[in-house]
Amino acid sequence: MDKLLIKGGVRLSGEISISGAKNAALPILAGTLLASEPVTISNVPHLKDVATTITLLQSMGVEVTFDDRLNVEADARNVPVRRAPYELVKTMRASILVLGPLLTRFGEADVSLPGGCAIGARPVNLHVQGLQAMGAKVTVENGFIKARTRRLKAAHIVFDTVTVTGTENLMMAAALADGETVLENAAREPEVIDLASFMIAMGAKISGAGTSTVRIEGVESLGGTSYEVLPDRIETGTYLVAAAMTGGRIRLKRAAPKDLEAVLIKLGEAGAEIKTGKDWVELDMHGKRPRAVSIKTLPYPGFPTDMQAQFCAMNSIADGVGTITETIFENRFQHVLELQRMGANIRIEGNVAVCTGVDKLTAAPVMATDLRASAGLVLAGLAAEGDTLVDRIYHVDRGYERIEEKLRQLGAEIRRVPR
Ligand code: UD1
Fold first, then answer.
1. 118 pLDDT band (50/70/90 cuts)?
2. Of ligand 1's atoms, which has the minimum distance to the CA of residue 306?
3. What is the pLDDT of residue 370?
4. C-beta separation of 219 from 179 below 8 A
5. How far is it, in rounded angstroms, from Cα 45 to Cα 72?
6. Measured in angstroms, how far is the CA atom of residue 32 from the centroid of ligand 1?
């Protein structure tokens, strides 16, 4: 298992390009199952989760190629196997995204239940209830969700909780259903809009994506298209925090700063000077130490839970006291225990972490526990005094494309060390 070795204390500076968004690429790849003709998707990031999704599609019989220029070609004209096995689902919960497309196009889908997850219970009950409301018969047998239907029927669905992949799954299911489905209290994330735009390009009839009411008029079939995945707002935010924590100045190209407002506002509060254009963002910390900020995670357009660990790392070396309130996932503070081992002064009270900034963190061997927690640890290592060794970085590789190369481009002293 690879580790990352980081020599902290370098002020980041320079320019890098942002990759395509993981959380848009995964549903779009699942969405290729809806198409009766080949599709091409560009700006697909080379990530572990993308590779897992491609393996999953291939295991069903979809013909998929992924080239070095970030293009995926998927031909789902024939999909003889309508099943997502446990071995793949257990490594990536987003595998649940094949449930809606398989069921609506072929009338059957067997998807292994995801099981426990390092960041809390993360159930899929709302996905299942939505499909049942559309007329599907759903049972759980031998650890699999088994869904069957003739043709799904349109339904009026009000989500109990805002769910991103739940909204995406039902949007895909409704695309080939009979009649107009309405999803209320839908997730408004930019990645939901990206999936809808991809589906519209294939011939789906969707309106309201990006608002809390999405309407989907079912069609008989969807065709081929070429589609480019939007930039990753979480990767963008992560590098911006890295620069802020090291007093640096960076410019990120091929980004979409309009999707990152809540994060940019908080970085401004922390003392960063931010400039944005349509597809770039610049952060200049002018060598200063960040001020502590308080955040509360919320569904989009609120502050993203996927940026919580990074801000926790920043607060741990900031000037003052900042509180972090996590409202989306229980048990998403594992990075705090590791940050404490680096000298951070953080107290957890229920779903609130109270961070009192210390003058400096000191390097220590630390362990990544989930994707975003591991990003927080890498950032802490960049700002710490000494050599930090981050173990279990397969978590990082699930969501960050070539993280050590990009950070080196910004001047960081970081390298991957094989075990
Ligand atoms: C997606 C993102 C993930 C992000 C999260 C929240 C992808 C592939 N992943 O995850 O990076 O951290 O959104 O922004 O896009 N819930 C239920 N029942 C359900 C579904 C969800 O109770 O059927 C609850 C969850 O336990 C959680 C909340 O709803 O408390 C939000 O979860 P959800 O938006 O579904 O997260 P994911 O879509 O899994």
1. low
2. 12
3. 87
4. no
5. 10
6. 21
Confidence of residue 114 (pLDDT cuts 50, 70, 90): confident
Ligand 1 pocket, mutate which of 97, 164, 260, 330 (most atoms under 8 A from CB): 164
First to last CA, the chain: 6
Contact between 200 and 175 under an 8 Å Cβ cutoff? The reply is: no
Which residues form ligand 1's pocket by a CB distance below 6 Å?
Answer: 23, 26, 93-94, 121-127, 161, 163-166, 191, 305-306, 328-329
Ligand 1 centre and the CA of 162: distance in Å?
8
Q: 66 with 54: CB under 8 angstroms?
A: yes
Name the closest-CA residue to atom 26, ligand 1: 122
Q: What is the mean pLDDT of the chain?
A: 96
* 3-class SS of residue 253: strand
Q: Three-state SS for 369?
A: coil
pLDDT tens, position by position, 341-355:
999 999 999 999 999
The single residue of 5, 10, 88, 117 carrying the catalytic annotation is 117
Residue 229 reports pLDDT greater than 60 = yes
Residue 1: pLDDT band (50, 70, 90) is confident
Residue 223 has pLDDT above 80, yes or no: yes
Ligand 1 mean position, distance from CA 197 (Å)? 21
What pLDDT does 375 receive? 94
Expressed in percent and rounded to 5, the helix, strand and coil fractions of the chain are 35, 30, 35
If we measure between CA atoms, which residue out of 113, 96, 107, 111 comes closest to residue 148? 107
What DSSP string runs through 234-247?
HHHHHHHHHHHHTT
Pocket test for ligand 1, best of 29, 122, 234, 238 (most atoms within 8 A of CB): 122
Q: Give residue-wise pLDDT tens across range 38-49.
A: 999 999 999 999
- Give the model's pLDDT for residue 331: 81
Residue 117 falls in the annotated catalytic set: yes
Strand partners, 5: 389, 415
> Which residue owns the Cα nearest ligand 1 atom 15?
23
Contact 230, 45 (CB under 8 A): no
Alpha carbons 208 and 231: distance in angstroms, whole number: 21
Distance from Cα 168 to the centre of ligand 1, integer Å: 11
